[in-house]
Design a protein that fits this description.
The protein is an all-alpha fold and 129 residues long. The chain has five helices and no strands.
């Protein structure tokens, strides 16, 4: 709960300051947005680590190879990074760049998920034999 209060305080402060800065110096408003976003990510970094550790623990208990878990974690990380980058681009008024970032993020997510797709197809082949 304390982390969410800090996140809300940083977010609201950043929005108010960004609105004031955007009138005269939009470049500084974008820098403020990026800085506030990075600060908020640092606030939740321990939580992200805890989620990854839990996923690894559960995968170990279920007997799932880390080779299969890694693409899932990478895909989620790519999704978060893509979403943040797209929103920063849109906030800066660069909708075209945001669209390209979304497309590139989707392609990279598919690329990272290929080992998982390969493993599933091998399992399906084994089940059919």
């Amino acid at each position: 709960m304390a982390a969410m209060i800090r996140l809300a305080a940083v977010g609201v402060t950043a929005v108010v300051l960004s609105a004031v800065l955007r009138k005269n110096t939009p470049e500084l408003a974008v820098l403020l947005t990026v800085s506030a976003g990075l600060w908020m990510l640092l606030l939740v970094a321990d939580g992200l680590r805890a989620v990854v550790l839990l996923m690894e623990e559960l995968a170990g208990q279920a007997g799932i190879s880390e080779v299969l878990l890694e693409p899932v974690i990478k895909t989620v990380a790519l999704s978060i990074l893509t979403k943040l980058t797209v929103e920063i681009c849109r906030s800066a008024g660069e909708g075209g760049v945001a669209a390209f970032v979304e497309t590139a993020g989707a392609v990279l997510a598919l690329l990272v998920a290929l080992p998982l797709v390969r493993a599933v197809s091998q399992l399906m082949g084994e089940l059919l034999i």
